[in-house]
Amino acid sequence: MFERVEVYPYQRKQEQDKQDNDNRYPAGRGKNRRVKKIAGLRIKDVAGQVALLVAGFLLGRAVLLGELLPFGAAFVAAVFAVYREYALAALLGAVLGLVYVATGWNLALHIITLVAVAAAALSLPGRSRNARFLKGTVVFVILVLAGTGYAAVTGPTTYDYVRVLFESVFAGLLTAAYLGALEGLRQAAGHEPVAAEKVFCVALFLASLVAGAGQIRWGMMSPGGMLAGFVVITAGYVGGAGLGAAAGAVMGVLPGLVYSVAPAALGAFAFAGFLGGLARGLGRVGTVGGFMLANTLLTVYLGSSPGIISVLAETAGAALVFLLVPAAVLNGLKEYLPSMGLFVAAQRPAAGRNEMGVAGKIRRWGAVFEEISRAYDQVSGSLEPKQKCGDRRLIFSELQNMVCAGCALHRVCWERELLNTSRCLERCLEIVNNNGRVETEDLDDNLRRRCSRTGELVMGVNCLYRLHRMNRFWENRMQESRRLASEQLRGMHGVIEQLARGMEAESEPWHRLAEYYKQELKHSGVPVVSLALYPCPRGCEVEVNMPACGGGKKCVYDVAPLLSRLSGENLTPAGRDCLHMRKDDFCSFRLYPHLKFRLKLGVTGCAGKGSAVSGDSHAILPLNDGRLAIMLSDGMGSGPAAAAESRAALTLLQQMLQTGFGRDVAIRTINSLMMRRLPEDNFATVDMCVADLYAGKAELVKIGAPPSFLVRQNRVEVIRSNSLPVGIVDEINIFSVSRDIKGDDMLIMVTDGVIDAYRETGDGKEWISSVLGEIIDLPPQEVADLILRLAQSGAGEGRRPPDDMTVLVARVEEV
Fold first, then answer.
1. Are 308 and 294 found together in one domain?
2. Which pLDDT band holds residue 343 (cuts at 50, 70, 90)?
3. DSSP 725
C-alpha cells in the first residue's frame, strides 16, 4: 500500500510535468511559426501590390499608335478577375500612368472608364466557361459607350468614332490576353503546368510592359530596352533559337506600334534572339555572348554614336540581370516548354487532337493581326486627305467669318458679287502657292476699291493658306502611320504563322520521323548534318542541311529518291542545279512533295575594272509551300564595299522572308537600315523573283534594278521599273508584277553592267532581246555564259568592263 502511495504521487507529478511541458514548449513554437507565417504573407502581399502597381503604371501610360489607350483598362479588368486582393494597386498604378499622358476632360474620361471597368469586373463571376470572352466583351462595351458619349458631347467627327472603335477592340482583345497571362503566372507560381496559349499570352503581356517602359529613360538607358533584352535572352536560353527569334520579333513589333522604333529593330531583335538561342549550348555566358554579339553588330551597322552607346548600355544591363537570376528559376521555366512542343502523340490520339489545337489557336492569333491590318487598310482608304477644292471652300468660309464678319459690305461681297469675290480669292491662293505669300497689290482692282479691310484680308489669306498646308502635311503623315501599322501587323501575322509551322515541325512524332530519315541517309552514305520535317497541305516538306557536294547534285540524285521511297511521296527540290560549288561549304535545300514545276538555274559574273571583287551578289532561297526566291543585288560602285552592301541587303532579306515577314515589310526594313548607316550614300538594287512552283506563277519585284527578260517560245517580254534603289529615300516605291509561267519559259535577270555594255552604240537593252530569241534552246548555264561574253566584248577586246556584271538565268521545267 505504501508503495502504491509512493508511486501514484510520483506518477501524477511526472504526468503533470509532462503536461506542463507539452503545453509550454509547443505553444512557443507554434507562436513563432505563426509570426513567421504572418510576416511571410505580409512580404508576399507587399511584393504583389508593388508589382501590380508598377505594371499598372507602365500599361496606363502606354499609348498605342500615338492616341489609343487600351492597355490600362485591359490590365485593370484582368487583375480584378484574377488577383482581386491586389486589384486596387493595379487600378492606382493605371491612374498614375494616365496622369502622365492625358490631361483635362480626356484624363477624367479615362479614369471614369477604369473605375467602371473595375466595377464591372467585380460584378462578373470569377470563373466561368467563357470568362475571357465575357470580360473582353464587357470592356469593349464600356469603352465604346464612354468614348462615343464623350465624342458626341465634344463635337463628333468620323475619325473620332473610328478611333474609339479601334481603342475598344484592342482593349477587348488585350483583356482576353492579359487574363490568360495572369492565370498562367499564377499557375507557374503554384508549380502547375501552363498551357502553350497562356505562355504566348505571357509573352504578349511582357511585350506590353516593354512598350509602356520604352519612353522612360535613366540617363543613357531605358528600362524598356533592358526589359526587352532580358526577355529575349531568357527566351533564347530557355527555348533555343526558335523561341528566341519569336520573342525578339514580338518585342520589336509591339513597341514599334506604341512609340517610334526603326523598322529594322524587328529584324535586329529577332536575329539577336536567334543567335543567343544557338549559343545556349555554352551555358548562360554563351547565350549572353551570342545576344550581345548580334545586337552590337547590328547596332554598329545601323545607328549613330549616341545610339550605339545607349543600346550597348541597355544590352549590358539586361545581360547582368539575366546572369543574376537564380538557375532554379530558369530551370523551372524550361519545365513548361515541353507542353508547347508535343502536339501529336501517335500512341494517344485524343491527346494529340487537343495538342494540335495549340498550333491552330496560335494561327487564329495571327489571323486576328491580319484582320486588324485589313481594317487599317480600309480606314486609310476611307480617310483620304481632303481634296483641293474642299480646302479652298473651307478657306473662303473661314475668311468670311474672320475678316468680313460685321462689315457693312458683307452682303455685297458674299451674296451679290459672290462669283467675282471667289475668283479674286482663288487668284490670291494661286499667287501665294507660287510665291509663298500674297500682297495687297495682288488683289483685284474692284475688290481693292470696294473692300475696307484689305490688310486683314491679305493677312488672313497668307495665314490660312499656311495653316492648311500644315494640316495637309500632318494628314499625309497620319496616312503613312496607318499604312506602316498595317504592314507591321501583317508582318506579325506572317511571323506567327511561321512560328506555328515550326511548333508543328518540332512535335514528337515529326521529330522521331525526321531522326529516322536522318539515320537512313547516313546509313546510305549521305552525311546529313540536320533534317527537319514541315507538315503542309500537300504532305510534308523536308529541309536538309549537309556538306556541299561541289556540284555533284546529291540532293537530286541521292537524297530526293531515298526520301521519296521512305515517305511514299514524290519529293523533289525546287532547283535542279546546285549552286554550292565550294566543298568546304554546307548546303541547305528543301524538298517539296508533288511539285508541278521546278527551275533549272545558271549564273555567272565578273568584276569590273579597278577591283578583283564584284559588287554584285545573288541568292537562291527555298520558301514554304513550294516557293523559290531568286534574288540579285548590285551594290553602289564596285569592289569589297559594294559587295558588302549587296550581300548585307540580300542576307537580311533572306532572314526576314524565312522568319515569315511579308515582302513589302522586309524591303522597307532593308531600306530603313541602309538609310541610317553611318557611311553616307550607300545603296543597293534588289531584283527578286518568287516562283510558286505549284500554282505556276512568278512574282517579280524590282527596286532600282535594271530590266529583266521573260522568254516564251520566240517572244521576249521586257520587264522594267522606274523605282529607286534601297538606301536613297525614306519612302521607297516597290514595283512588282505577276506572270504565269509554263514549261520551257526562261527568265533572265542581269545587273546594270550587262545592260550598259552597248550603251555607247545606242543599243542599250535591245541587244539582249535580240540575242535571246536565237538562244532559247540552250541550257541556262550556257545562256548565262554567252550573254556575259557578249557583254564583255562590248567593253572592247582585252579590256575589263567598266562595271560589275552578273547574269542569272532560270528555266521552268515540268516535273
1. yes
2. very low
3. P
